[in-house]
Structure prediction request, 256 residues.
Amino acid sequence: MASAVAWRLYMANIRRICMTELDAPLCVRRTVSFCAAIEDGRATIEGVEARVAHDLADVERTWCENRIAVVVRRRWDSIADLVPDIAVDAILAKRNIATTIADAALVIALGPGFIAGRDCHVVIETNRGHHLGRLITSGAADANTGVPGDIAGHTQARVLRSPANGVFRSERRIGDRIGRGDVVGQVGDLPVVAAIDGVLRGLILPGTQVTAGLKLGDIDPRASPEYCRTISDKARAIAGAVLEATMRHCNTPRDG
Prediction:
């Protein structure tokens, strides 16, 4: 979701974008996430490239190369002098971890866990349905339902979750065709088994330390490998909402 936001802003010619990421990203849709730059040094989504930056000079150099900068959280102090005009909390933790309305002139937060006017200036609705992508300037988004969005009639069954604490191992790749009952990987000695047929649209990086219940992957019952390499409809809608909030802010007449 965060990568879709960065991609949309970049495509609207907002080019000084810096993203932060965990040292060991937990993203499953790695083929459409700039978090892949943490592992590979760079990542490309639909023609837009991001590169890892290690300090403030590196961030500036990356911007001069017309790329998005990605900084791991443990290096955040090295770019502490970088003061954002706009901050977007796209962690999607379903709660506010550390974001405050004072973080930037415009603070945007995605999904539940935030109150617009207190924690941030704008909350974006992330719940699928009629209000997906709505800008909320007072109040909160829908509460977390705990149920994944419906794709071709499947919700919980399409999500792969860790059966225990441990290290996730797998020989599978994103884009592989998966059958119901197939073993996609394992955590320790416990298998991770597919509950439906489809294409493996997302998979957490093998070798990642995981906790019981953590999302490890996503099977798309529509079985189109192309969907693994392109931004989803939901992510595009939310990214478009962030762009709208940005334009509202930038195009608001200032006093004087």
Notes: Helices lie at 2-11, 36-40, 56-64, 233-250. Residues 84-147+231-256 form one domain. The chain has a mean pLDDT of 94.
